[in-house]
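Below is our example:
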Amino acid sequence: MILGGGRPMQRRTFLAGSLTTLTVGALHSTTQTAAANAAGATVDDDFLTVLTNANQKQIPLVLGNYQNASDSIRTVARKARRLISGYVWGRSSYHHDASLLAPLQWLVEQLAARQHDDGLYDVGNLHSPPDSAFAIQDVCMLYALLDADDQPATQPHRTILEQVLRKAGPALASGGVHTPNHRWEVSAALARTHHLFPDRRYAARIDDWLDEGIDATPEGFYSERSSTYAAEVTNPCLLTIAWLRDKPELLGFVRRNLDSTLYLLEPNGEVDTTASRRQDQKSIREVWWYLTQYRELALHDRDGRFATVAKSIEQRGTGELGDFLAEVLERPELAAVLPAAEAVPTDFAQHFPTQGSARIRRGDRTATVFGGTDFHDLPVISSGLSTNPTFFKLRQGAAILDSVRLSPQFFSTGHFRSDGLRRTGDSSFKLADEVKVPYHLPLPKRYRRKDGMYALTPDGRFYASMDFPHRPKQYRTLRTEVTVVEVGNGFDLTFELDGDETAYAIELCFRPGGTLAGVEALDAPGNYQLVAGTGSYTVGSNRIEFGPGSGAARVGMDPGERYTYLGGNLTPDGLRVYLTGRIPTRQVLSLRTA
């Protein structure tokens, strides 16, 4: 639902009591949608109960530690949001509870006290417009909800919040950003501030950022390829801008992202993050962050698949679901009953060429194949790049193989990272890379210097004053291909390594919580080796079998000189099983599930 401009005074009707029907038409919709036309649509009481109960559990936690001096300004704003949601909501046991007013006063005073004279906050970054925008979005919601509730007891709180917003707005309208998603965070904060306290500068800055274009592929992935930033920033911000600035075309970007995310969902509510360019490329991410996004597009498009995801989040009940109560109080049309559920995809082999990844799912068995690293275009290790060396994942129910990696002992060049992903069949894929390491020959005479002071240049692994680009070279080459083929109840991974004779190791990292069998423990905790035969990893009734082992030689995983020079490593958390061998070779790793 996209609603138009104007102060949110009509929300008082919704906030006032326990509704049995939802009157969308009373909220001044300027962009007609199927859901907005359904004036009098029934409220989803189960949904409201979930949010109400979740918020009621949050409030005592806030009251117990709201004066935590180490809280960031974003945490301060979020704590205030949790208190206000309960305070204004007629169905909450904290509705107009006077015991919330003093803690809330302390929190809003912190929002004012920590604000610099220029209107910005320090959140790690100093005087940061984008980091301030995260907090200001919440501050706008705080003010709007209290204003709609219109209790005399909260007038002092509103006065402070208004001062904060009027001070922050010009800074957000003139400041800069660091990352792609920051543009949409700042724009959404400006849209909210403009909605409350109109200023043409705010609208103009939003249009400037939007005029750069939304950084999304036709498949629906934003340039950062991150579930974290899609769910927490880009999607909700685009929806906010669409709603407050009457820009329905932005919904298409969110729709495509949510549609592609259907293929990244795991049966237990996690979202695959292997292709991410941000911190979550090596962490676990859960789908609950997407709740109101899936709900809004389900209602807007009458999409039963999106409705199924939204309901599954409610039923699972994990995460901070109480944080969504403020959004629904602000936009009550989000609480309408969802369309009839439709099945989400659970049987597919989906290829995403723009990010070099594939997802395969057969019921409770899922797999990820990844060859879309940025390492070949930008051969550095840096925030904002995809450098995760994991190229395959597999899970069967609760038995989870979080990572398959390969590391040859080849001039300390580190892990195998595929240069792309090629689909070779309905559910078969090829990963490949060629690593060339030079030996440098004498400089041609025209580049030689009598003072011996040559340019500091990269060799590919390190830097030296050698003027490497102008030197003739002799190369040692390693060619690696990994073919991934779905077979029956699992996968065959065929490794073909061709080059100078040297050692390699394949690392399988299983998530903690299960039992390994058929493997030998190594010296370091969590490290095992499959020497021969077949090993297995079991969690409850689920099992992943792997093998065969390929020898007893112990070969370490070499993360490469880029990591080891400063003492870094790429050891994943979990139970790590190693299979080792010698190059050149052809080795088949069989993975079977039960």
Notes: The chain has two domains: 11-335, 347-437+478-593. The radius of gyration is 27 Å.
